Protein: Cation/H+ exchanger transmembrane domain-containing protein
Organism: Leuconostoc fallax
Amino acid sequence: MVYGLILLLVVVTLILGKISIKLGMSEVVGQLLSGIILGAGLLNIVHPTNLIHLISEVGIFILMLNSGMESDIKEMRKHIKASTIIAILGVVLPMVAFPIVFALSGYSLISSLFAGVVFSATSISITLSVLAEQKKLGTPMGAIILSAAVLDDIIALVAVTLFSIFIGGGTLGITSILPLIAFILGILLRKIPASDILSKVSSQLGRWFFYPVFFGAIGLEVSIQGLGNKVIPIILFSVLAVITKFAGSFIGARLSGLNYRVANAIAAGMVSRGEMALIITQIGIAANIINEDISGEFIIAIIISTIVAPIMMKPLFSRT
């Protein structure tokens, strides 16, 4: 039964991904929506399980591993200054804006501060998926986005570690840094002779099985039960998530001397929160920093920003 549901998730995710492409959107959008449709958000057929979680973790690992193998580290080094400025401003704006908005909305100080940490992260995997789809991964723009996203997540992981240790009494697990570990490993494997073969094999495995489960599983996390009276806050948080990351990254890109068109594309590439924000949210729950009621609002806002981001990215990437 479980295997059948996983197969259903894979098939529906692949189909909706292709439909998204036909509609001129990123494949990731359809893949995320498949989880929402099949999960508690709509049909309530497929639910997150330990096996789906495990497959998703493998999917993250393969996606990040391949991204590392396809990334030009020399190109990334060339743009480290721009990436650093973009990353810092892309983190600072959400970290300042979210606590203020949350506090004014009546949330506790701890929850408000933690919201800033959650929404400061960037989903490397989803952004990289769109970059690869648009064949921009090896470009200077792709290198800048990649470097900035990695720096973003390092800052966010440091922040959540401090929160977890000093406020929640928890620690940072290996799952939390798995995407970064896989990416670094991919960069190292790029140097070995068999890297091309490894990349092709893992890409096919990811494309037809692991990636659909990973992206679909994000959608499975969405549940609309009990959120009816929180629609306005969720919309507010979702809009804030997009605006703060886009604005911070755009300003950083412009301050780095990049032109308006490239700055727009880079800013769009930094908007998605995806798996990293979800991981940080789960750390917050495990460390008793936030409760599950608040986490539901976080997850919905994360999902919305994750769906909006590829829609923004595709046209802006194509213009650069």
